[in-house]
Write a structure and sequence with these properties.
The complex is a heterodimer of chains A (about 800) and B (about 260). Chain A is globular. The mean pLDDT of chain A is about 95. Chain A contains 19 helices and 28 strands. Chain A is about 30% helix and about 20% strand. Chain A has 3 domains: about 210 residues, Aldehyde Oxidoreductase, domain 3 (Alpha-Beta Complex); about 325 residues, Aldehyde oxidase/xanthine dehydrogenase, molybdopterin binding domain (Aldehyde Oxidoreductase, domain 4), CATH 3.30.365; about 150 residues, Aldehyde Oxidoreductase, domain 4 (2-Layer Sandwich), CATH 3.30.365.10. In chain A, β22 and β23 form a beta hairpin. The longest helix of chain A is centred in the last third of the chain and has 28 residues. Chain B has 3 domains: about 45 residues, 2-Layer Sandwich (Uridine Diphospho-n-acetylenolpyruvylglucosamine Reductase, domain 2), CATH 3.30.43.10; about 110 residues, 2-Layer Sandwich (Uridine Diphospho-n-acetylenolpyruvylglucosamine Reductase, domain 3), CATH 3.30.465.10; about 90 residues, Enolase-like, domain 1 (2-Layer Sandwich). In chain B, about 50% of the residues are buried. Chain B starts with a strand and ends with a helix. Classes of the chains: A alpha+beta (about 800), B alpha+beta (about 260). Chains A and B meet through α19 of A and α10 of B. Chain B: Keywords: FAD, Flavoprotein, Oxidoreductase. Chain B: Pfam families: FAD_binding_5. Chain B: This is Carbon monoxide dehydrogenase. Chain B: InterPro entries: CO_DH_flav_C, CO_DH_flav_C_dom_sf, Diverse_Substr_Oxidored, FAD-bd_PCMH, FAD-bd_PCMH-like_sf, FAD-bd_PCMH_sub1, FAD-bd_PCMH_sub2, Mopterin_DH_FAD-bd.
Chain lengths: ~800, ~260
């Protein structure tokens, strides 16, 4: 029987009432007295030297209040990368300064080099155009292609970096010789060169920021579209502007999607704060959609050669990759971690592979910065592995289901230390594969294929067995790996005098449903009604120092912190109950919302204990502080490792090359599931984005660095009729062994597991349809590309 | 968007007068012009709305075929042309989304002559007559290349008259992002022959595929064009489709339109 409430219940999302009725409050919805409007002036060329900016051209224009250029920020700090990565030779990565506004050079189309502040948005917009026309930029040749950039020392994105390489990373470098030897000895080596296409995140709500300055106290306030307000505050205070952390409040109110792109600190946030201080007025900025395309951190953009050594039976012996990863013009905050520790460490997949070596060269180009985007490195790893495994099956004439069964780790092999530095704690990959095979009715595929053929369509089926690592941790390990922050999270559980509860969490909800799920857990643990629990998030003035939401970490890390804090509440409640019931603390038990003396009918409700804590008339004040509020910080012992098996069926129209995804089945292991409906929704969304990447989305710069896909006229987002009804299952659960809730995380799974399943299905359809020369098509498998491949 | 004046005349004569003003531009459904203005790529001083003129509205049978007022929205064409010219109604019902179909007009589409627009294929394949405030223009003479038409300064479309074929069909292949026609073909079979018009494909805008017309006039079946090839010379080549791909689509979609014609 499904539960109605508490852990495991498909409680409807309470936040949806305000979102669906237009009552959400997003940054741009806020209107402040005396506010001024900022418009950024952005480079229209990909690469150029700023010769002059004639600010006098706009200073007397109607409504113009201030003009900022890179000159105004040349003495403040740069926006840093969050991870220091060392190259194979031990040298640290090259880390050029990322200024608030471009200074000296512009490095990508959309690079902001000035800002105009005016009374109205229209006036600021007018002035920004005039300032753009009054700027002289000496255009330099654009550096767009990664491999060409790395090969050409004469043309540099950053003058001080001769080969445009940020770092050349080997993982694990000590494994390299053994992997080379294993590859040499392998009976078969399968090689595949592929591109993991660059994606624009396209959150529904564009980025927006409002800066305020209070001269009476010297306090700043930033309201911004952030997935992690504390990290944004830290970056602004400690690295960029030098504001004491206690003098800056960062608020992320309702945020309409992030997918990674709103993890990072962007220059506009510093700009509105500086402008607010100079003008003594609130200063607001909201991105237009075109600005989002040009200046949000993009995702993916890897070019990879993967080699797989194997036996004739398909036993994987070794994997070796060489990847060029585009970081764009500047290092965004997680850009150096994404292609390395979120990618290379997953390159063994869910398989028992004795030897793995990963090489990643990150390259600067005159394109928008690239950073973590839903899945972040793990989709790139999964795509490379699952495509080459599929190619192995085709080249050696093996069954893709059987080959995966042969190579998947078995339940008795956990905990399993991979050759790329992770310890998988638990899993049952055979179970999810079997479940997917059953739910997808693999046995009935041939009949469906014949039916498609009767309609003139080529049908194919593709499989992907994937694993990811979520809730990145522990801090001491990531510190060794180069992280410049800790990766714990925090929660404060405040029981109010009347027994209602406020939970202040370091996680940030920008679509996930924390306001529903977190109370389910609190209610279950305290035996109270979920409606009396409120989740407070997204405001550094209200919540404990947390690291925000990304990497499917909220429940596994911040949820665990909340769980710990609740345990402290219960422990204190027992002390209070022991006093009130005149019993020994050890004799007090807590269940169903009641503190009872074991073996008696003497009990106090949770509400009575809460009241006593705040009205401590009958209370052990000599030994116990009044109040009932506890904070816990939680630093996980390990990552969590969700895994699963995805099966996709496509139909290909031979005449037009159009791919229709007609069936998609997911069997996932997310550990314990708190709210099945929300988990399924997350999978739906993730698979939708994965299908978008696989079939539709292409971010294309031309040779001069102009973004050709800078609007929805040319950037194809998945729509409802581009995706099928999904079959989603999460019954094959192996609870995480090291966090108190046994949860693993589900936010990115769909986007990680699905692209290779789609492309494998397309290749399968073409192969079965007689187009046997087609071994690979790069994503997106657009009609044009599929038709060209068939007719090559 | 920059400031502008807005006038909404009730008669064609008043519209002509209003358009004589310096910097005036006609506005129909605004599906192209308004986004262009929002992007500050166009800044007309006066917008003359053509949507308040009664005689430019509506769908009815008349001399020479189906008369459609130039300011008639796509949604109205989709509903009201269905009984008379189902292929045309289906085309109108497949443009954009409901918001676009309730604002965008046939006259606006034909006047703009976007190379990826749907209506030009129907106008050309039907041998329609474009009626303006000053004259009647045959479809052959009207379309003069991408975004180029026979319309002169101050001239605007008041009506389009479609001869009704025995059967016809429009088959569109969507550009994946915009869902405009990456390429689309309208096939119309008349008593005196078949007309085939393709949109979205050529650098010269909508065009007739005369070889196919000849073959289909002799035998109206998809098989009749199987041996033909479409030259990729002068075909559009962009992110979404090479010239060769578009040439292929012209042929594939023509065959499908023939099969679908009713």
């Amino acid at each position: 029987m499904p539960k109605d409430t508490g852990i495991g219940a498909s409680t409807k999302r309470r936040e949806d009432v305000r979102f669906l009725t237009g009552r959400g409050v997003y940054t741009d919805d806020l209107s402040l007295f005396g506010q001024a409007h900022a418009v950024m002036v952005r480079s229209t060329v990909a690469h150029g030297r700023i010769v002059s900016i004639d600010t006098s051209a706009v200073e007397s224009m109607p409504g113009v209040l201030a003009v900022f250029t890179g000159e105004d920020f040349k003495d403040v700090g740069g926006n840093p990368a969050g991870w220091l990565i060392n190259s194979r030779d031990g040298t640290p990565m090259r880390e050029p300064k990322r200024p608030v506004l471009a200074h000296g050079k512009v490095r990508h189309v959309g690079d902001a080099y000035a800002a105009v502040i005016a009374e109205s948005y229209a006036q600021a917009k007018d002035a920004a155009q005039v300032l753009s026309d009054a700027t002289v930029i000496e255009e330099l040749p654009a550096i767009v292609d990664m491999k060409a950039a790395a090969a050409d020392a004469s043309n540099r994105v950053h003058d001080e970096i001769p080969d445009n390489i940020c770092f050349d990373w080997g993982w694990i470098e000590d494994n390299r010789a053994a992997v080379d030897a294993a590859m040499k000895a392998a009976p078969h080596v399968i090689t595949l060169e592929l591109t993991n296409n660059r994606l624009v995140p396209n959150a529904m709500e564009p980025r927006a920021s409002i800066g305020e300055y209070f001269p009476g106290t010297g306090d700043y306030k930033l309201t911004t579209t952030s997935q992690n307000p504390h990290l944004t505050r830290l970056l602004i205070c400690a690295f960029v502007m030098g504001i004491p952390e206690n003098k800056l409040q960062v608020v992320a109110p309702d945020v309409g999607g992030g997918f990674g792109s709103k993890i990072y600190h962007y220059g506009e946030e510093a700009l509105v704060l500086a402008a607010a201080k100079r003008l003594g007025r609130p200063v607001r900025w909201t991105a237009e959609r075109t600005e989002s395309f040009l200046s949000d951190a993009h995702g993916r953009d890897h070019v990879t050669k993967i080699e797989l050594g194997c036996t004739a039976q398909g036993d994987i012996l070794a994997i070796r990759t060489e990847t060029y990863a585009n970081v764009g013009a500047y290092l965004s905050n997680f850009s150096t971690a994404t292609p390395t520790f979120l990618h290379g460490t997953l390159m063994a997949g869910p398989y028992k592979v004795p030897h793995v070596y990963v090489n990643v060269k990150t390259v600067f180009t005159n394109t928008a910065p690239v950073d973590a985007y839903r899945g972040a490195g793990r989709p790139e790893a999964t795509y490379s592995i699952e495509r080459v495994v599929d190619k192995m099956c085709r080249e050696l004439g093996l069954d893709p289901f059987e080959v995966r069964r042969r190579n998947l780790l078995t339940p008795d092999q956990f905990p399993y230390t991979t050759p790329v530095g992770l310890v998988y704690d638990t899993g049952n990959y055979q179970a999810t594969l079997d479940k997917a095979v059953e739910l997808a009715d693999v046995a009935g595929f041939e009949a469906r294929r014949a039916e498609s053929a009767a309609r003139g369509k080529l049908r194919g089926m593709g499989l992907s067995t994937w694993i990811e690592a979520c809730g990145i941790a522990p801090s001491h390990l990531v510190g060794v790996l180069g992280a410049r922050v800790g990766l714990y999270d925090a929660a404060t559980v405040r029981v109010n005098a009347t027994g209602t509860i406020s939970v202040m969490t370091g996680a940030h909800s920008h679509g996930q449903g924390h306001e529903t799920v977190f109370p389910q857990i609190v209610a279950e643990k305290l035996g109270i009604d979920a409606s009396s629990v409120e989740i407070v998030h997204g405001d550094t003035a209200k919540i404990p120092f947390g690291m925000g939401s990304y990497g499917s970490r909220s429940l596994a890390v911040a949820g665990s912190a909340m769980d710990r804090a609740i345990d402290k509440i219960i422990a204190k409640g027992k002390k209070i109950a022991a006093h009130m019931l005149e019993a020994a603390e050890g004799d007090i038990t807590f269940a169903d919302g009641k503190f009872s003396v074991a073996g008696t009918d003497k009990a106090k409700t949770f509400g009575e204990i809460a009241f006593s804590a705040y009205v401590p008339h009958n209370y052990p004040l000599e030994t116990l502080e009044p109040g009932l509020e506890e904070t816990a910080f939680y630093d996980p012992a390990n990552f969590t490792y969700p895994a699963g098996a995805y099966i996709c069926e496509v139909e290909v129209d031979e005449g037009t090359g159009k791919v229709d995804v007609v069936a998609f089945t997911c069997a996932d292991d997310f550990g314990n599931v708190m709210n099945p409906m929300i988990v399924e929704g997350q999978v739906h969304g993730g698979v939708g984005q994965g299908i978008g990447q696989a079939v539709l989305e292409s971010t294309t710069y031309d040779d001069t660095g102009q973004l050709l896909t800078g609007s929805y006229m040319d950037y194809a987002m998945p729509r409802a009729d581009d995706v099928p009804f999904y079959t989603v299952d999460h019954s094959c659960s192996t609870p995480c062994t090291h966090n108190p809730l046994g949860v693993k995380g589900c936010g990115e799974a769909g986007a990680i597991g699905s692209p290779p399943a789609v492309v494998n299905a397309v290749i399968d359809a073409l192969q079965r349809g007689g187009h046997t020369h087609v071994k690979h098509i790069d994503m997106p498998v657009s009609p044009n590309r599929v038709w060209q491949a068939m007719n090559a | 968007m920059h400031n502008f004046e807005f006038v909404k005349p009730a008669t064609i004569a008043d519209a002509v007068a209003a358009l004589a003003a310096e910097g005036a531009q006609p506005l129909s459904g605004g599906q192209t012009l308004l986004p262009t203005m929002k992007q500050r790529l166009a800044a007309p001083e006066v917008l003359v709305s053509l949507t308040g003129i009664a005689e430019m509205q509506g769908v009815c049978m008349g001399e020479g075929g189906l008369h459609i007022g130039a300011a008639t929205p796509h949604a109205v064409v989709a509903a009201e042309a269905a009984a008379h010219y189902p292929a045309l109604a289906a085309l109108a019902g497949g443009i954009g989304d409901p918001a676009v179909r309730n604002r965008g007009t046939i006259g606006g589409s034909v006047a703009n002559n976007d190379p990826a627009a749907c209506y030009p294929a129907a106008v050309l394949a039907s041998g329609a007559t474009v009626v303006t405030n000053t004259r009647r223009i045959a479809a052959e003479d009207y379309f003069q290349g991408m975004f180029t038409t026979a319309l002169e300064e101050g001239e605007f479309i008041t009506q389009v008259i479609f001869p009704i074929p025995q059967r016809g069909a429009y088959v569109k292949f969507n550009q994946p992002a915009s869902r405009f026609a990456l390429t689309a073909v309208f096939v119309a079979q008349f008593a005196d022959g078949v007309r085939v018009a393709a949109t979205g494909a050529s650098n010269n805008g909508v065009f007739r595929w005369e070889e196919a017309e000849e073959a289909l006039s002799a035998e109206f079946s998809a098989g009749a064009i199987a041996g033909l090839t479409v030259s990729s010379d002068d075909m559009i080549s962009d992110l979404h489709g090479s010239a060769a791909y578009r040439a292929n689509l012209v042929k594939v979609l023509t065959g499908r339109a023939v099969t679908a014609a009713r």
